[in-house]
Amino acid sequence: MSDGVPVSVITGFLGSGKTTLLRHLLSLPEMGETAVVINEFGEIGLDHTLVESSREDTVLLNSGCLCCTVRGDLVKTLQSLAIRRVRGEVPEFKRLVIETTGLADPAPILHTLMNDPILARDYRLDGVIAVVDGANGLATLDAHRESVKQAAVADRLLLSKTDIAAPGDTATLEERLRALNPAAPIVRSAQGQVAPSALFGAGLYDPETKTSDVQAWLKAEAYKDAEQTHHHHHDHGHDVNRHNDAIHAFALERSEPVEWDRLVDWIEMLVTLYGAQILRIKGLVNVAGDDKPVVLHGVQHVFHPPARLDAWPKDSNRHTQIVFIVNGLEQEMFRHTMAAFLDKSEGAQTR
Hints:
It is a single chain. The chain is α/β, with parallel strands linked by helices. 35% of the residues lie in helices and 24% in strands. The chain has 13 helices and 16 strands. The strands form three sheets. It has an eight-stranded mixed beta sheet with strand order 3-4-2-5-1-6-7-8. 42% of the residues are buried.
């Protein structure tokens, strides 16, 4: 695993409160060594200093944080930041936050962070934070497909504007988000007020502590419950758009060790045929002949290099668990093809 600067992607639909969140976070002492990259088509700047200096490649905010805008290629922007950091041309930063535009699909940014070999030397993906408008989120999810995808791929869901949202609407929105993305913690916020510890550190592996967060990351049981809810909604003819039946999550579990080559062949088949519809794959794999687990993490067609953890998480049953977040695909196809590719004896079980 890379020991590079952790990168968090903040996404969320137009007006959801991304900039308010950033303004609050960057005012906190614990965020002082942070670099921020915002899309040049983003909403209002973080503060007057940034607005006045927006033509510069890099701005030093009053808080001591760095901020720059994406002018073209994200890879070049991040490479430039890393080089200038090494040269001492910009202050040291220990965290990078990327804010997407409200209409953005976060997948291309994740692809870039996961797949570019040069960036991998300096950065590592920490997670995706989706800001959901607590007052208008239900209507937004109904009307805008982008907002559904933003929430579905997130590692953290920040419910904003909870001070002005109707309590009943907030509870309904949270229920809907849990069905859409069961493992992502939902954090409530008003005026962007939230502790950084609630949003960051979402990655599988923390180089500073050399520990894994796989169990919290996967939460396979939550995904199984979500799949049952998905089928319940589907079977009873609920409105597809309103209940987001096309985008849903589920987990597959396998009790016996799997042959790595067979697993790779299965994943490659899925990605080749359905890559655009497989929004995210997360997995912890018990590989035959290996006493340490292997982590899988993919976004559509792009995967992190498989990573071997130092040990299984505490209290783990050592089963292979793979979570899928998909668009327009059913679990039964995944279950059937998994068995076809991986089964080699009567003793193998897929649940």
